[in-house]
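User: I want to check something. If I give you two sequences, will you return the structure for each one separately, not as a complex?

Assistant: Yes, each is folded on its own. Here is the first sequence with its structure:
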Amino acid sequence: MTDEKNHMSFYEQRLQTLTAKPLTWAVTGVAGFIGSNLLQRLLTAEQRVVGLDNYVTGHRRNLAEVEREVGPARWKNFRMIDGDIRDPDVCRRAFDGADCVLHQAALGSVPLSLERPDETHAANVTGFINVLQAARSSRVRRFVYASSCAVYGEDPDSPKVEEQIGRSISPYATSKHMNELYADVFGRCYELSTVGLRYFNVYGRRQDPNGAYAAVIPKWIDAILAGDVVRIHGDGETSRDFVCVQDVVQANILAATAEPPPKEAPAVCNIGTGVETTLNQLFKGIRDSVQRTTARAKVEPIYGEPRAGDIRHSRADIGRARRLLGYEPQFALTQGLSETIDWYLAQRPSQVRPA
């Protein structure tokens, strides 16, 4: 038994401990891309979960898929609250009795924030204060929240380290920086234990490919599968650290159950892979993976103007997450893309696969 345990990852050991002694979790944005993946992992580990969502960016179909995946016995451990984090009473009701809060609800688009900064502020800042207040009044053990690599702004250095950020270049980035400031103040003034996770470019199953503000990976997968044009903003040499949603789920669970972070350091951690990929490399990787699966004709991208508010290069230094949380990415981009494309193909039952 000891040898078996030694071969388990730290994360697997933590899940085993949680399964033996379940906790009650509150997940905001539970019907969204990341939230629904968190829900599935927690229910699979026999946890009790209360979810909150207003379905502005989330979808009921995501919850329906989780229900099918986990089965009726585990689904009984989930309670859904339809509501908005801008309503303080709804937040308090969702967090009542929770051990841990995983706050994912936000308007997460740079272009949208440039068009409608007021809406971004209302959801991402006012809503954030509401969930902090509710977590404080409910005396939760740990409040984990989604921050973003967008806070690095104009900082030219790579990899990105938590201590050094630049001037914000979008309202979205500003809203996430304000989240970190408020979380730090609530930790120092009210002794609320918080951990912020600066997500880099997250991808995976259930990421919505539709809409003007869709993320690049689902948008390109969907376009290639449909035989549509793929557009790249700029020259394609913009680079990003693409992290699979399963690794983001890992980071949330570890952050919620880790020892309290040192008080002298801001409780924020980069969550990425530490590997940089250009958009040209990403496009080729997606195209090649789709071709192996569906034998689609070879396509080439169309290049356009760079997108306003985007930073040029972004790669995570994940040393702090490793030290404080025990985080270790498990999905290389090739493997993550393959599994993601398999999921999108499963949503297209008429898709022709090679014999």
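And separately, the second sequence with its own structure:
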Amino acid sequence: MLQSAKVNLHLRYSLLKHYYNVFITQKGISSVFKPVFFVFPLDNNLYLDEIADTQFMIGNILMSAPILDEGKTARPVYFPDNQWYDMHTGKVYATGTQNITGVKITDKVPLFLRSGHALFTQNTTGVHQTKDLGSNFRLVAGMKKDSSRSNDTYQQYFAFGQMISINDYNKESNV
């Protein structure tokens, strides 16, 4: 379990600026973590106990579906609203219930990026505390096809993201 804590602490640090962005965008009201049905209130599947109790959102674009039982390496995950991308592998998941496999409780928590959105992550090699984080970022984008601008010979995709400066988090610091 110690290895799992280390792996997931580094995962948390890699997403820390995303957490700050969500918190500041919400003006410090509410939580960064919320049930999936808060983001997709019209999807009745999200109110089922096995989904509502085991999946959650980090902001509006990142969904987590952790493995909760030791010894299990698979679990069903419900994906609402279009496509989702596995943050660790890039695998694409369509709407509906799909099984994720090969994930142990000691691995990184399964995270899925919503199609049409992007976020920044950071390298956490050598990071032991928040002040060790640098200012270099990796853009992770869940591309969504723009059908209105695509045709047989040209395909256009998009993803929207946001980053807020932690030093000056007023409205002018949106990028």
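Because they were folded independently, the notes below concern the second chain alone. Confidence is low (pLDDT under 50) at residues 168-175. The radius of gyration is 17 Å.
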